[in-house]
């Protein structure tokens, strides 16, 4: 836990509805670090004076981010999946940035799914979400493909993304 605390930076002022970075984390993703990030997110967003409904929305997106990284992230030679996550309070709301390393096949799949989700309006997204939910097809990674749709339903605009190629066909 001390390792997590040394890598996790939480800025919140309970007396001020301040804007700026609330949570910043870069490091390995384990169940304990994911749980701690979620608890700190809830606390930091609540301390901005934001309505409970909005806090739950932010937390749900963070949960989806962590689950996606856990299920689909590249595992390094040490057996770890690395995560980068920031949550920022802006004048327009909350901005969540999440990143991790993935292989070339997952990058292609992710690009395709994000483009598909971003191409749907709210009604189409809701309809597709229900269709996938009712089909009950669970992938070998343990998901039904609802994560990105769930995030998109909770976001005010399209999910912005960037895939930057690294060494050895990793992004």
End-to-end gap: 28 Å
Tally of helical runs:
6
Tell me, rounded to a whole number, the average pLDDT. 87
| Range of helix content | 40-55%
Radius of gyration: 16 Å
Structural class: alpha+beta
- Tertiary shape: globular
Strand and helix layout:
Blueprint: H1 2-7, E1 8-10, E2 20-28, H2 31-46, H3 52-72, E3 82-90, E4 93-99, H4 104-118, H5 122-135, H6 147-154
Antiparallel strand pairs: 1-2, 2-3, 3-4
Task: Explain what you see.
Helix content is 47%, strand content 16%. By secondary structure, it is of the alpha+beta class. It has a four-stranded antiparallel sheet with strand order 1-2-3-4. α3 packs antiparallel against α6 (147-154) and α5 runs antiparallel to α6 (147-154).
Which descriptors would you attach to this protein?
171 residues, alpha+beta, four-stranded antiparallel beta sheet, 6 helices, 16% strand, globular, disordered N terminus
Characterize this entry briefly.
This protein is of the alpha+beta class and 171 residues long.
